[in-house]
Structures are given as structure tokens and as C-alpha cells.
């Protein structure tokens, strides 16, 4: 890899700008394909650039051989994100599991005393109201949203934004009864059965979790299951 | 296998390129290995990367530890002559001392020098 290519690649990653590195596996020549630009010493035709951009969108690296030349497209997307609404006890072990699994974590809780730096080191904290916070965060298809307050005042505004987004996972803490009432409220607000079915509730895989850490494990496992679904 | 341990923290993270750049900036010979094709059950998916420096330090992984030693060995050659190499690894014979994947998968690993 040439120094200028490495420098550009590092800069893109630092700026959280998605980029695909296309390599000729014979000559070693490489170019970087951004959503809106191409740079490097490897000449790429439109078809290859298009397939590199598709790879970026699908978050999937792979071979893209063309005209008998072995080419490889390596996707460098910014980290996946997990937005946790509710700086509650479960959020602490969930934050750690998410970070270990390669997610960037954002915790949203407008109740001042909850989302403190001491309890949540190394994550982005937002004290905005959840709908405002989630609008600002611009949820994409590499974002998971988990609501943990089981307070409709806080969870529902977050769900309204999440349900209109491309989030790959939406989960909400609360018993079946709590979720039943949530479904009634969302139905009254005009959401269809299909839209509401995107919410995983009660949240997490069923592993008989009891403690906050165990519940966090069940949530992280479910998010992984959804992310890696074939 | 090199005496340096695999950095477990980095196994599933994407900081391989950053580590490679840091080694290079410190004046070390560095190579990056990338899984470019897989068949059957392979422990690490396409796109997984490992970086190695001339002292045998490594970060990241291209398998569950089955072929890392061989890849780092080849990486040393790549650091020397700068020619990228495409390596293929298949099923190993459990009874023989050869490098391969006990899981029964096949992988192709591309090794390039960081200039």
C-alpha cells in the first residue's frame, strides 16, 4: 500500500467517512472509492466503481474480478452505532458489551442525574429529549436503537423517530403487558401492525436473564442475531 | 508461531490499519494480510485483516489462529521484496504437522507491504 493511499484511508476513517479500498491482487495497485469520489493509482471503470459503492452500502467486502484481473473490494465503514435511551442500570453493562462488539454507543436521557460521565465513561451522552436527540443523530441502516426507560414519556418519542428510520434493530424493555399498552398507543398514533412489529419486545433473547448484566447479554445477543441474519 | 501474542482486543475491531500505520511510522517493515475469499466454514469472514511487523508483532486475525503463523512468515518475505502474494489455505490433516484449517474450510489471503 502506497503511503498516500494509507494516509487517505486513515483520514477517511478518522472523519468517519465510508470508503472502499479496491486492490488489484496481481499488481498491488490500489484506489479508494468514496460515495462521491475516487482516488488512487488503480484505474477503475464505472462498473467497478458502482460495485464498490454497492459493497459500501451492503457493508460487505468481496472479490470483484473484472476482465480476468483479480480485484478485491475492502469495505471500511465507520463503526456501527447503538443508541440507548435511558441511562438506567442495564445501560451500563450493555454499553460495555456494545463497545466490545465494535459499536459506538450513544446514551440519551434527559433526566439530568442519570446520564453522568462517571457512570458512562467513553460514550456520547445526550440530555436532549429522545425524539430531538434521535433526529439529530440521523439513524441509518447500521444503527441499533434500544429503549430502556419503560416510561412512555421517554420511550415513545424515541420509538416514533426509530420507526420512521432505517435502523436495523429496534428493541424496547418492558413486560408483555407494558408492550401491549405500547402497541395500543402506537396504533392510536397511526402506526401499522407491520411497522410496530419491527420493535423487539420484550427486548432480548429469551435466556432467563435476571440481573442487569444478564439482560444486557440477552439484548446484545439479539442485536447480533438480527445483524447477522442471512 | 511467533512468540508475540495475538492482540485479543483487536480480534474483532477494525484498528488493524491504524496499528500498521503506527508501526510503519516507527520505521518498521510492515505487511497487511486480508482474507479475500472463503469457501465452506472459515473462522473469519472475507475482509478480515491482520497486520504484522518485522519483529513478529501482529494485530487482528485471518483465522482462528490456524494459519496466522504461516501468514506472518510469508509477510516477512513480502516486507523484503514488496511483491504482494495471494496465499491459499485448505483443510489440514489432523495427524500431520502442516498448516491448514482444521474446520474444513478454505481461505485465500492476500498479503501486501505497507510502503
Descriptive notes:
The complex is a heterodimer of chains A (230) and B (115). Chain A is an alpha/beta fold and 230 residues long. Chain A folds into two domains: 3-76, no CATH class; 80-227, NAD(P)-binding Rossmann-like Domain (Rossmann fold, 3-Layer(aba) Sandwich), CATH 3.40.50.720. Chain A has eight helices and eleven strands. In chain A, the strands form two sheets. In chain A, strands 8-7-6-9-10-11 form a six-stranded parallel sheet, with helices on both faces. In chain A, strands 3-2-1-5-4 form a five-stranded antiparallel sheet, with helices on both faces. Chain A is elongated, with a radius of gyration of 21 Å. Chain B is α+β, with helices and mostly antiparallel strands and 115 residues long. Chain B has one domain (8-113). Helices cover 21% and strands 27% of the residues of chain B. In chain B, strands 3-2-1-5-4 form a five-stranded antiparallel sheet, with helices on both faces. In chain B, a hairpin with a 4-residue loop joins strand 2 and strand 3. Chain B is globular. Chain B starts with 15 loop residues before the first helix and ends with a strand. The interface between A and B is medium-sized, with 24 and 23 residues.
Amino acid at each position: 500500500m502506497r503511503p498516500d493511499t494509507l494516509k487517505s484511508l486513515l483520514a477517511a476513517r478518522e472523519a468517519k467517512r465510508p470508503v472502499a479500498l479496491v486492490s488489484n491482487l496481481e499488481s498491488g495497485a490500489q484506489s479508494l472509492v468514496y460515495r462521491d469520489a475516487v482516488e488512487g493509482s488503480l484505474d477503475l471503470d464505472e462498473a467497478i466503481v458502482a460495485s464498490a459503492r454497492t459493497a459500501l452500502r451492503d457493508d460487505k467486502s468481496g472479490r470483484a474480478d473484472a476482465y480476468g484481473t483479480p480485484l478485491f473490494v475492502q469495505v471500511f465503514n465507520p463503526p456501527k452505532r447503538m443508541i440507548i435511551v435511558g441511562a438506567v442500570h442495564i445501560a451500563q453493562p450493555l454499553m460495555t458489551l456494545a463497545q466490545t462488539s465494535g459499536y459506538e454507543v450513544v446514551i440519551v436521557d434527559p433526566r439530568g442525574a442519570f446520564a453522568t460521565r462517571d457512570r458512562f465513561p467513553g460514550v456520547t451522552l445526550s440530555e436532549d429529549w429522545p425524539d430531538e436527540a434521535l433526529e439529530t443523530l440521523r439513524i441509518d441502516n447500521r444503527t441499533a436503537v434500544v429503549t430502556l426507560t419503560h416510561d412512555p414519556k421517554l420511550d415513545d418519542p424515541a420509538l416514533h423517530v426509530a420507526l420512521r428510520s432505517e435502523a436495523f434493530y429496534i428493541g424496547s424493555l418492558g413486560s408483555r403487558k407494558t408492550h401491549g399498552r405500547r402497541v395500543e398507543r402506537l396504533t392510536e398514533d397511526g402506526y401499522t401492525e407491520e411497522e410496530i412489529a419491527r420493535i423487539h419486545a420484550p427486548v432480548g433473547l429469551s435466556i432467563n436473564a435476571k440481573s442487569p448484566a444478564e439482560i444486557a447479554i440477552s439484548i446484545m445477543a439479539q442485536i447480533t442475531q438480527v445483524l447477522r441474519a442471512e | 508461531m511467533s512468540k508475540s501474542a495475538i492482540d485479543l482486543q483487536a480480534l474483532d475491531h477494525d484498528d488493524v490499519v491504524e496499528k500498521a500505520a503506527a508501526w510503519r511510522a516507527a520505521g518498521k517493515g510492515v505487511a497487511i494480510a486480508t482474507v479475500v475469499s472463503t469457501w465452506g466454514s472459515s473462522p473469519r469472514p472475507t475482509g478480515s485483516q491482520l497486520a504484522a511487523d518485522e519483529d513478529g508483532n501482529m494485530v487482528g486475525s485471518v483465522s482462528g489462529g490456524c494459519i496466522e503463523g504461516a501468514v506472518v512468515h510469508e509477510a516477512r518475505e513480502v516486507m523484503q521484496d514488496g511483491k504482494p502474494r495471494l496465499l491459499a489455505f485448505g483443510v489440514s490433516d489432523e495427524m500431520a504437522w502442516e498448516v491448514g484449517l482444521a474446520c474444513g474450510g478454505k481461505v485465500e489471503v492476500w498479503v501486501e507491504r505497507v510502503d
